[in-house]
Amino acid sequence: MSLSFEGRVVLVTGAGGGLGREYALAFAERGASVVVNDLGADTKGGGKSSAAADKVVEEIRAKGGKAVANYGKKFGLALILRDRSFARTSDLDWDLIHRVHLRGSFLVTRAAWNHMKKQKFGRIIMTTSAAGIYGNFGQANYSAAKLGMLGLANTLVVEGRNYNIHCNTIAPIAGSRLTETVMPPDLVASLKPEYVAPLVLWLCHDQCQENGGLFEVGAGWIGKLRWERSQGHIVRQKNQPMNPEAVRDQWDKICDFTDATKPTSTQESMLSFVSVLSQVESEGGVEANPTAAAASTSGINPAEAVGQKLPPTSFSFNHTQCILYALGVGMSTKDPDHLRFLYEGHPDFSCLPTFGVILSQAVLMDGGLLSVPGINIDPTQVKKQTHYSISSESPLTSEATIADILDKGSGAVILFDVNTYQDKELLCYNQFSVFVVGAGGFGGKRTSEKAKAALPAPQRAPDAVVIDSTTRDQAALYRLSGDWNPLHIDPSIAAMGGFKAPILHGLCSFGFAARHVLKQFADNDPSRFKAVKVRFVKPVTPGQSLQTEMWKEGNRIHIQCKVKETDAVVLSGAYVDLHPAPDGGGLQSELVFAEIGRRIRDTGAELVKKVSAVFGWEITKDGKSAGQWTIDLKNGSGSLHSGPYSGKADVTFTVSDEDFMAVVRGTLDPQKAFFSGKLKVRGNIMLSQKLEVILKDYAKL
Question: What is the pLDDT, as a whole number, of residue 26?
């Protein structure tokens, strides 16, 4: 399928000839409306003419395309050179080149920026040069300006990411007015601009998700460049001055690019320095490889690491730690329901079940991971996901095993299974998924059957939404439960990590969301809590409000957590599994509806075509209403709703939980159930004939 730019407006600067002309013609040929900008200046920056831009516009229109000319200097760029050796470069030579190339790029982009933000779409291509990347004799002014454009592009990537504005940079080599002065004529003729334009078109298309890339391109070849950094070496000791002799003595190690890392952001870069501070302060010695957690390829050896056990850790706690954790995840005496988690004298005093995460995280935080053969990680540079299930609240010893290692290309994922025991009885199971930046590419598998899978939320309105405010001191309070990372309390460390302020612990947001589920669907009964899975997406700033959206499907509650003020998703693919109510109030039919819901997600569109109706179910138990379900197979791709339904069902069935299960299992004929009064129907009774499509094969337990 060819790439189309219908409905897009493209501004090409320097489009009167060379590369710019080729871009303009190519965009127009594929349906774009093109603004052809060219000042008509010569290669020294002198003169002015509209002829070049007008000619290209005529070419485009002659082929049926849409284009207008622009000769404006305010937003235009002229492709000029003023080459001099550095000693002979005048102020004018320097300023003119920077004004045209760097400031011109700034002005053009600034003019378009707010329009791109408003429409939530934009594609920007900066043109640097090999002279800017590598340097070139006689082009100090040009080299500096061109590398400055790359720095501008990198910042636009960061600021435009939330608005679907992508910025990439190319370093093309092609025959043009500029290159014909420094290349042989036959080479200029061979390096055609049409060998560059396809890359520009792809990077500008809305299908392309590349962002922040730097590419060399020419002669039909395209290559991507990236930064590389040596593992480096710490050359100072705690409470000791740093001296040049130490730098000299470790120079070979400082410059050794074996197992080099590839940082891609300021945050990744700065976290290495946080690691250095931690190592120097805690150990007081000279440590090599502070950037090991950016994880070079040889730092991950799956064959050696998988199956290895970390040193066990012990954890003792009493009611004080339980109460402190409850406060840390936002519980308050303002809510009477919270008192059972905050007051040790409450007759139903309990520990929040998510406290189980605290029991196991020490295995990673105590540095045990660093002792595993085949693994070299700095915990400050990893991203964690969590799954855990719990059956008690009194752990003693946690043991962790590396379950698997996955190759994700840009990094490695290490799966940890952590079992917590009291004596020899298993009390709590955690699975941590640790993403190690830059450690991929070792040829390993990308998926694992051992990983607890995240699940998407149902495609319908949530069954319940809870909004809860965090306090300015939420992170300061939560860290007292054992996560002492200064990123969450020290503004200077947060700044080094690329954050404007200390951020909230991801596991604190997780605690908020889990207790929302516990209250909404389990009456704050910890014994109902079976398991939880979350995937951390973005950080939260203390003081922001968390909005937890919940979908009930049987005993599984799907959850998604957002920052209310920004609508940014912070937890996704998450769910909580609950045990049935201990008083026997759990419905067997919930399992059937959960399975129906899953099948609707998989084949809903097909079912909508076959059925085209909305079915309501009222499930009773002991003569009382015990559950409501609505199966919508009329709208969209189908959906399943638990609880009250805002729309109108075409037909509604009322049946006991026991009789419903008998119908599903085939031991009770639906017609006999209807005539005997066990199955009551209101609405369009003829639609009951389509029940077989829903229940047969779609509700196997």
Answer: 97
Q: Which of 228, 152, 217, 154 is nearest to 191 (CA)?
A: 217
Write out pLDDT tens, residues 225-276.
988 888 888 888 877 888 999 999 999 999 998 888 888 777 667 656 655 6
Maximum separation of any 2 CA atoms in the chain, in Å: 104
Residue by residue, DSSP assigns 614-626 as: EEEEEEEETTEEE
Is 143 in contact with 170 (CB distance < 8 Å)?
Answer: no
Query: Directed axis angle between helix 18-29 and helix 197-204, to 10°?
Result: 50
Cα dihedral sign, 455-456-462-465: positive
Model confidence over 638-689: pLDDT tens digits?
888 877 777 789 999 999 988 988 888 778 888 888 889 899 999 988 887 7
53-75 mean pLDDT: 87
What pLDDT score does 216 carry? 94
Quick one: which of 81, 75, 78, 88 has its CA closest to 47? 78
Cα–Cα distance list, 164 to 466, 566, 571, 600, 621 (Å): 29, 16, 21, 31, 51
Distances (CA, A) of 147 to 105, 142, 607: 12, 9, 57
* Number of CB atoms found within 10 A of residue 190's CB: 14
Give the distance from CA 248 to its chain's centroid: 41
Distances (CA, A) of 304 to 203, 299, 317: 40, 11, 35
Q: How far, CA to CA in Å, does 618 sit from each of 393, 501, 678, 681?
A: 37, 50, 12, 10
What is the C-alpha to C-alpha distance for residues 551 and 517, in angstroms, rounded to an integer? 10
Alpha carbons within 13 A on the beta-carbon side of 667: 6
Q: What is the pLDDT of residues 357-407, one digit of tens each?
A: 887 776 666 555 556 666 654 444 444 444 444 433 444 688 889 999 888
> Locate tokens 């590598």: which residue?
134
Nearest to 149 by CA among 85, 192, 97, 201: 97
Picking from 75-89, 331-345, 368-382, 426-440, which range would have the lowest pLDDT averaged per residue?
368-382
Which value, to the nearest 10 degrees, does the dihedral of the CA atoms of residues 341, 343, 345, 346 take? -50
Six-digit token string for 115: 């329009």
Q: Tell me the C-alpha distance between 689 and 195, whole Å.
A: 63
Residues with a known catalytic role? 142
CA 503/CA 495 separation, integer angstroms: 10
First to last CA, the chain: 43
Helix residue spans in 30-160 (DSSP H): 51-62, 91-97, 104-119, 130-134, 140-160
